[in-house]
Amino acid sequence: MKRILTFGLVALLMTACSSENDLQEPQPVVPATPPEQSAEPVDTVEPKPSQPETPAAVYAAQFRVARMDITTDGGMAIDSKQKTDYRACSIKIKSDTTEWNYEGRGRIRGRGNSTWEWYPKKPYRLKLDEKAEILGLAADKDWVLLANYRDPTHLMNTFVFEMGERLGIPYPNHTRYVELTVNGDYKGLYQLTEQVEQGKNRVNIDKKEGLLLALDVDDGPADSPDATDNFWSSVYRLPVCVKSGDINCRENFATLENAILAHDYDALAEIMDIPVMIDYLLIQEFVYNVEVAAPRSIFLHRDKGGKWTYGPLWDFDAGFDFDWGQMYTGHKFFSDYRETVLGTDPARHISDYTYTSSFFTDMWESKQFVSEVKARWKHIRPRIMVEFWPEAKKYAEACAEAMARNAERWPIDKQYQTEINRMEKWLNSRTIYLDNIIQNYP
């Protein structure tokens, strides 16, 4: 119920947003030609089934779509996301890259919050019996299958994952696309990625004395008040879920909060990786991820004897100007690029989301911090439409035929090719708009 009320408040705030018909046409950004690519604009090339070259021949292995078949023992339905309701299963993966083929045993259950409860295409959590490399990704037992039902482009998480990895956000998630069949039932196109957790090939921090936290109203004390690993932080009253580690967690986090509250740059630099913090928050603002305002899916980690560091990046189908007024059934994004979640003046909460926690904005009181934000943005800005977006779009081009089959399996009120084009236009417009905002931070 609390989750629904929170979304309701967001939906009311969103009604003030401009309509798509009111959009001002931005001046175009003309990207430089990426290395080893044709001067032909990347968005004009649509892969067609009739072309002699197939995606397997054109694109590197990571961009191609594999086939995944999961058969539960006894054909049991995957009808719960509870940890106690894992279903034993056999897993087969068929890839165009022969060495990526896989067969093994594991367990599967549902996962997610709104994505599990609201939408017919379900996301899944997969736990292998034995660690294994999956589609070229580092070996582990725990994997996630994202349905991306709300996202009509299938690219929102992928774009942010690519952007974050290239900017050096630690322990990035990676994208592999699979067409999933469960017990003979074709489920459509899924994004396979790593589970965010402590581990050698995940968030590689000390198991006992490292800390991995999620700031999340769903996983934290708001919805699980009796859980011993959940607490409200003492300074900003953030909902904290401890994913790994328990070494003086509350006290250590309070020290971080107090440094931010005092907007003391030097004190914060002693305990926080500030360059990663700046990149992480700029990414959240750039894709207009309103989950920061809740907050949800905000991860921080700290290794034994190390600094607090933001990341990994996770869960971005609530960004890109999602229409919360249609949150239960809608797939409407990209209507307005002229909005902010951190704000035009973050320290004074001049923003579309004035209730965003000051934990994310108080450092804008520091002139040194703001100066570094501006300098970093100047480095990031020219790479967005030249590097980050073209790299993400390769997945869509290689997945074109699978996207068409997914659209037949899960017909919605949006056409994926149209929405990918709208996403590109929105990103382009957003880059121009935020350039003015960030250059004029007080």
Overview of this structure, please?
The protein is an alpha+beta fold. 30% of the residues lie in helices and 19% in strands. It has 10 helices and 12 strands. It has helices spanning 2-14, 55-58, 114-118, 156-167, 249-261, 265-271, 274-286, 367-398, 400-409, 416-439; strands at residues 65-72, 87-94, 102-110, 124-134, 137-146, 176-182, 185-194, 211-215, 230-232, 239-244, 298-302, 308-310. The longest helix has 32 residues, at 367-398. Mean pLDDT is 89; it is low at 1-52.
Q: What is the count of helical runs?
A: 10
The gyration radius over C-alpha positions equals 21 Å
Give the total of beta strands.
12
Low-pLDDT parts are 1-52
User: What structural category do the secondary elements indicate?
Assistant: alpha+beta
Strand content: 15-25%
Helix content bin: 25-40%
Distance from first to last alpha carbon: 39 Å
Major sheet attributes: 7 strands, mixed, barrel
- Global mean pLDDT: 89
Spatial shape = globular
Widest sheet, order of strands: 1-2-3-4-5-7-6
User: Which series of helices and strands comes N to C?
Assistant: HHEEEHEEHEEEEEHHHEEHHH
